Amino acid sequence: MSARARKWIRVGFAGPGAFIIALVIMAGMALWLPQGAAQIDNLVLPLILFPLIWAALFFHACLDGKLVRVAVVALGLCVVHAGLVANKFMSKPAAASPAAAHEAKS
Question: CA nearest 88: which of 34, 47, 44, 29?
């Protein structure tokens, strides 16, 4: 692979790639973070940590000497968190008990 192609791949991982992967990680974090006392910590913490996640991915893409390692880490994180989100959307909701259905009607 030419040096020019490697440079553009690195720019892709550092620029739009880091942003998109950070968004996917943020969406997946809401599924594995604990809810906390107010029941919203799993939603607020990913929003607060988004700039840190983006910066970590950006600087890793810029500073790591091995492009393969950059790709494995970034795509691995993206696949794991996208899988968590996809699993959440694909799972069927739990069946409601008859007592809960009766309470919902009243």
Answer: 29
Amino acid at 104: A
Query: Is residue 87, in this structure, part of any structural domain at all?
Result: yes
In terms of DSSP H, where are the helices of the chain?
3-14, 16-32, 41-63, 67-90, 98-105
Q: Does the pTM of the predicted model rise above 0.90?
A: no
Taking the CB of residue 13, how many other CB atoms lie within 10 A of it? 23
Q: Is residue 106 part of a domain?
A: no
Which helix (H) or strand (E) segment is 40 a member of?
Answer: none
pLDDT beyond 80 at 95: no
> Is-contact 87 32, C-beta < 8 A?
no
CA distance 46 to 26: 5
Count of the separate structural domains present in the chain = 1
